[in-house]
Amino acid sequence: MRQIARHDVVFVAGTAGEHELTWSQKAHAREGCHPHLHGPRNRNQRMARALDGAPDMAAVLHAFAAVMAHFEALRTLYPRDADGRPRAVVVASGVLQVDEYTSDGPATSDELSALTLRLAEPGFGPDDLPLRAVVVTVDGRPLHLALSLHHFSADTTAARIVAERLARLAADPGADLGTGWQPRQIASFEGSPSGLRHAHRVDAHDRAMLRQSAMPELLVPGSHRGALYNFVCLDSAAVALAAAGLAKQYRTSVAAVLQAAYACVLAEHLGIAKCVFNTVMANRQTTFAREAVAHVAGRALVPVDTSLGSERFPALCRAVDAALVSSSSVSLREPERYARSLDEASDELGRSADNPYVVNIRPIAPRTLIRARVDRAQQDFERALASSRYGRFPKSVDTYAGKLCFVVWDMSETAGISLGTDATSFDATDLERILRSFERRLVGTAIGGHVARSGSFAGA
């Protein structure tokens, strides 16, 4: 794979101006994100995506111009003021450089991953646009996009949204990008009286939830150097089928079904009956359709009473769904107030309040999940289970050190589930056991009595 061209994409938008940093951007700064540096502290979000159809390079470049004009976060520069603090300045126009790489054949995921990493390595200057992009072509035909986004401007979900919009517009230049909150609107709301009142409600909610938590604290390594961070990943069509079927059957959300099953398995593994999850949610005008890139970090503490158990799984799913709905507005905080509140809550609890278990479940609409594919026949689940893939790999510890992190990274034909934690809390074998139990519990609940008569799931 080699670079053969560099294209200048000119974008012009109707909005510009300066605004306060959003809560999410301030949180990145507080957590030690240094996006202007070289090396590992230069944290960016990277994304690769195949292009649908057969767009030409002109259509792809047009898509970049339209997406840059649509998303204010991609047009935001971060110069520093006299005190060295970053400001957010949205520009109305500019030029994005898009590199064209050619490959002898379709790029592999490893090659695309390496390419996105190279894009992030130089770091982003305060006057750089927060997006770098590559189009990979084979015989002159664009096949893949590779993106690296400045961490102040996007999370993983937002990077995926940008890639999806680019691919959609490349295939259909007239496609509608929709509307959504922009960073200036978010910052304005956060500073408004209603936004501040909401932040205070969040503080009261989180304190109450933390007091109810029976979740044991995970260990935090004394030194990040040399510490291992274990990940275990599951790619399972059976989980997707079961989650879709149960959500429809119980008239609840897929997110609630997944979290209920995970809560049961984790409580069983740890020997506890109640827990509080730190659930990362989108704070959007519509829950299932986030259009803006910059976002408010939506973190809501949700109590889960696992004593309902598997025999009352429908009731547990509905209880979790109700908790998620009631907590969905609990997603804005004043960073300084929040930091003080965590310290005060830690004193109340006698342990760190900054260590709840994290559940990242992307907004999932049951109606769009595997349309007309929910067949609860036992043999279909057996075939799906036979194709399940598990993987494990260690990496250096990062910002999730000491936390058990549950991430649903896709819900389409398969459900990708990742668990990760510092090796001092759980090793990879523990995590794999939890994931296998999670899959078995969902599938067993979905097919009902069949699971007792089948040996297919023994040791699944």
TrEMBL record:
GO terms for molecular function: phosphopantetheine binding. GO terms for cellular component: cytoplasm. This is Condensation protein. It comes from the Bacteria. It comes from Streptomyces aquilus. One of its GO terms (biological process) is secondary metabolite biosynthetic process. InterPro entries: CAT-like_dom_sf (IPR023213). Coiled coil: none annotated.
